[in-house]
Amino acid sequence: MPNQKILYITTEMYPYQEDTNLAAVVNKMALKMHQEGNDVRVFMPRFGQISERKFQLHEVIRLSGMNIIINDLDQPLIIKVASLPGERLQVYFIDNEEYFKRKQYYFDDEGVAFEDNDERAIFFARGVIETIKKLNWVPDVIHLNGWMSSFVPIYLKTYYKSDSYFKDAKIVLSLYNEKDAPLASNVGEKLKFDNISDLNALNNPSFESFVIESMNYVDEVVKGDEFLNGELDKAFNETSTSKSEYLDVDSISKLY
How open is the CA angle 11-147-75, to the nearest 5 degrees? Predict the structure, then answer.
């Protein structure tokens, strides 16, 4: 079914990240849907490891310049864009000096999770939502990949619930076996600043607990890895949200 507007929100995508299933799967899905005649956009964080010169990223001035308030601090939102190498498929990068300049993704060189991973996820989610609105492009399908993207449906169904912009969009969440880590114990206070409270994930905030929480805010949950680990598999089996076992790329288009 071509001519759909499909938004991929992801933390990883090949070739910007290599050697992970998540990055490979998102690349294959986005390319396949693009080649079938759909209007596809991809949004991801501009982690410091992504070379702006190699991948020819450039700032989109008309989309940049917004400030997003995180924990009572104004954080400037910078939007960069590139075409997927060899393809006319646009990839948008959410950037901010404070949150995404560092070379590591979520853990420092000693393997300790960054204390501001929660703020980075909030900034990413709100940055994507605000930028899509500024683009004046309304997606039919929003497909979430990677733990940071799990904050998007939580925000859409709470903070943005009276905003009709995304009201007809269907949200798909893919689950992957990602390395888990705790989030800051005061993440609840930061979310409360945006009138978000009463989340089960706040009892034990972590990458995984927010992914599990977000299952309640989407239309479809899909296995991104064929076999899920531990709590993630348990949550998948127990969720009342419509769900699919692992799907190959061809089957994903049927789901849309």
Answer: 70
At 155, is the secondary structure helix, strand, or coil?
Answer: helix
Peptide bond between residue 15 and the one before it cis (omega within 30 degrees of 0): yes
Nearest to 47 by CA among 1, 112, 87, 91: 91
pLDDT digits (tens, 9 = 90+) for 130-169: 999 999 999 999 999 999 999 999 999 999 999 999 999 9
- Residue 44 parent element (H or E): strand 39-45
Task: Count the neighbouring beta carbons within 10 Å of the beta carbon of residue 48.
Answer: 13
The pair of three-digit structure tokens given for residue 77, joined into one six-digit string: 């939102």
Residue 249 one-letter amino acid = V
DSSP-assigned beta bridge partners for residue 9: 43, 144
Q: How many CB atoms lie within 10 A of CB 38?
A: 19
Of 10, 87, 27, 30, which is closest to residue 56 (Cα–Cα)? 87
- CB 103 within 8 Å of CB 46: no
Q: Is the pTM of this model over 0.90?
A: yes
Taken as a whole, the chain contains a residue count of: 256
Q: In whole angstroms, what is the distance from residue 171 CA to residue 220 CA?
A: 7
What are the pLDDT digits (tens) for 192-233? Answer: 999 999 999 999 999 999 999 999 999 999 999 999 999 999
**Which is it for strands 141-145 and 73-76: parallel, antiparallel or unpaired?**
unpaired
Backbone torsion region of residue 8, taken as left when φ is above 0, otherwise alpha when ψ lies between -120 and 50, otherwise beta? beta
